[in-house]
Write a structure and sequence with these properties.
The complex is a heterodimer of chains A (about 300) and B (about 290). Chain A has 6 helices and 14 strands. Helix content of chain A is about 20%, strand content about 25%. With about 300 residues, chain A is an alpha/beta fold. Helix content of chain B is about 65%, strand content about 0%. Chain B is built from 16 helices and no strands. The longest helix of chain B has 21 residues. Chain B is globular and about 50 Å long. Classes of the chains: A alpha/beta (about 300), B mainly alpha (about 290). The interface between A and B is medium-sized, with 33 and 37 residues.
């Protein structure tokens, strides 16, 4: 059994307040508990990680030292900002492994995540943390995490290197694919333009199609898929193409095409209010009783058992 | 003459810090630093520099990204990894190039080498089109043509005196540069090209075209068409003297055997002239080069 809990569901920046209390204002953080083997995995260290840390201090620490793994989808700020506020890092008994993708030309993962903890930005330096923290650069691949847990990773389409995660355990599949948007042919396709190059244009088409196909195969058949749905299609097309996020309509179409059982629309636009979500839910949410997946907007505090 | 192990070692040590051609470095910096760069511009500016193209493909195919399939075209890399990642790869590589400057071209003229490389790339691509190779695969022909003479760069840099003699000997004998390289340096640019291709983990077809463009019949069957196309494009560039990479006297029997392999006549190549000139002019305008 996997227990998946949402501690932060927003994109871009935390947005607390009366208008976001129902769906939540914290940025990305998802917890998976494998109770049968006593393992916990955290995906992303957005601002939601603070609440999770506080919960772990009360719930896990009395049973023994905290040991956990954090898998970062990427290192944009909304996905790492919760790390300095994750209380277990201040306990000498805590052991944390941090995994995530880093581009070739970038600093190390440790420098990027720990770089938030310099006196310029924060009162405690990375070097002063009491916990034992290790960092490892993660790439595309398939990994045996032990205890019967298998992880497959896949590069997504975002302005920096970003990974989707697919966990398989006891025959169930939990998959994340955010921050991402449909791959497109980035090359000029207007044959009248001076920029046009037939070879580039044709190859661009082929590669974009192949990459979309590969990403869809990656999420196929998931029991729970958490997919980027920051925008509506109406918002995406006129001004948000290339920003690295998908529309709700696209996420739903992928889930339907690939026989996903439950789809959590995720990485919500920060300006979206609870009232607007309720209106969108009336259009897009589905119970999953009939054909097709159950579809819902991820809510902070929501828990799903697989 | 030094032992071939030693020669290989000297060249391998040089390969990883092999500089870009400064012919293109300023433009690379300009294009990659601009937030408004289009995918077309990015692809074009990288592909105009054989060393940079090789470096970028090397990084993309490296364990760093551990992609499941080898990437042999920049267009593919740009869509898979995104504009920013490829821009940054190019920038970080071009900086090495900026340090290299023209000093790495002691015996060969860098601008002439660059023009020769472009000509072979463009010609290989045009030949592929004429042979009905699918549009999406033609970029690989361009890359293979563009990179075919990379092996000359470390030879020219690491063994400057011997290489100058090899060039003179080939000119004096009106013969093959490959043979002079073997005689006077002890290693030829096909062998050095293979070392680069393997060290940079370029796609096998690209490595084959670096290694076998003077003997396409020895290339593995999978890549023989590509290698023969590059070989023919190379002869074309040399015969029409578009740019120069030191191979001034192609051997007639070799030309005939390649034409036969490709099932072409020399006259079939005449229509390429306009395309090649146009592409070369476009590249020069793009780089804002002055002759």
């Amino acid at each position: 059994m996997m227990r998946v809990k949402f501690w932060g569901v927003r994109g871009s920046i935390p947005c607390p307040g009366g208008h976001t209390a129902k769906y939540g204002g914290n940025t990305s953080c998802i917890e998976i508990r494998f109770d049968d083997v006593g393992r916990q995995i955290i995906i992303d260290a957005g601002s939601g990680l603070r609440e999770l840390g506080n919960f772990m201090m009360g719930h896990d620490l009395p049973k023994g030292p905290i040991s956990t793994s954090i898998y970062l989808s990427h290192t944009h700020w909304d996905h790492i900002m919760g790390f300095p506020f994750f209380t277990p890092i201040y306990l000498p008994s805590t052991r944390i492994e941090v995994f995530g993708p880093v581009s070739h030309e970038s600093d190390t993962l440790e420098t990027i995540v720990g770089g938030q903890m310099t006196y310029r930005y924060f009162p405690v330096r990375q070097a002063e943390l009491a916990a034992t923290i290790s960092y490892a650069n993660l790439k595309e691949g398939r990994f045996d995490l032990g205890d019967g847990i298998t992880l497959t990773t896949k590069y997504l389409n975002h302005p920096i290197l970003c990974l989707g995660y697919r966990f398989e355990y006891q025959g169930k599949v939990f998959c994340t694919a955010y921050d991402t948007e449909p791959y497109q042919n980035l090359f000029c396709t207007d044959s009248d333009s001076t920029e046009y190059d037939e070879g580039m244009a044709l190859e661009g088409e082929v590669v974009a199609r192949e990459q979309n196909e590969a990403l869809e195969s990656f999420v196929a058949g998931a029991d729970l898929l958490v997919y980027d749905a920051q925008y509506t299609q109406g918002e995406y097309i006129p001004g948000k193409v290339g920003w690295g996020h998908s529309s709700m309509e696209f996420a739903i179409a992928v889930a339907r095409r690939r026989q996903v059982k439950r789809l959590a629309l995720f990485h919500h636009e920060p300006v979206r209010t609870d009232g607007e979500f309720d209106e969108l839910a009336a259009i897009y949410a589905q119970t999953g009783d009939g054909d097709g997946p159950e579809i819902f907007f991820a809510r902070e505090g929501g828990e799903i058992i697989l | 003459m030094e032992s071939s192990d030693h020669l290989t070692h000297v060249i391998q040590a040089y390969i990883d810090r092999m500089p870009s051609l400064s012919t293109t470095v300023n433009k690379v910096l300009e294009v990659c630093n601009s937030p408004k760069t289009s995918a077309n511009d990015l692809n074009r500016v990288i592909s105009l520099d054989p060393v940079l193209t090789g470096h970028v493909l090397k990084l993309i195919n490296s364990a760093y990204y551990s992609l499941p399939n080898q990437v042999s075209s920049l267009a593919r890399a740009i869509i898979m990894l995104g504009l920013n990642t490829v821009k940054n790869l190019a920038l970080s590589t071009a900086v090495i190039g900026a340090l290299g400057k023209k000093s790495c071209f002691t015996a060969l003229s860098m601008d002439a080498f660059w023009a020769h490389s472009i000509c072979v790339g463009v010609t290989a691509k045009a030949l592929a089109a004429a042979n009905n190779v699918a549009g999406s695969e033609r970029d690989e022909y361009f890359v293979a043509g563009m990179l075919h003479d990379l092996g000359k760069i470390p030879l020219n840099k690491c063994f400057a005196a011997e290489y100058a003699q090899a060039l003179q000997l080939a000119a004096l004998e009106q013969g093959s540069l490959l043979r002079s390289e073997q005689l006077l340096v002890g290693i030829d640019h096909g062998m050095a090209g293979r070392l680069i291709g393997e060290k940079w983990r370029l796609a096998p077809s690209i490595v084959d075209s670096l290694a076998f463009h003077h003997a396409p019949e020895q290339a593995p069957a999978d890549s023989r068409t590509l290698v023969a196309t590059v070989a023919l494009a190379n002869l074309y560039a040399n015969i029409y003297e578009i740019g120069s990479a030191g191979d001034t006297f192609p051997e007639a029997p070799f030309l005939m055997s390649i034409l036969e392999m490709m099932d072409l006549k020399w006259t079939d190549l005449a229509p390429l002239h306009a395309i090649v000139r146009m592409e070369l002019d476009k590249a020069q305008v793009f780089l804002k080069l002055t002759e």
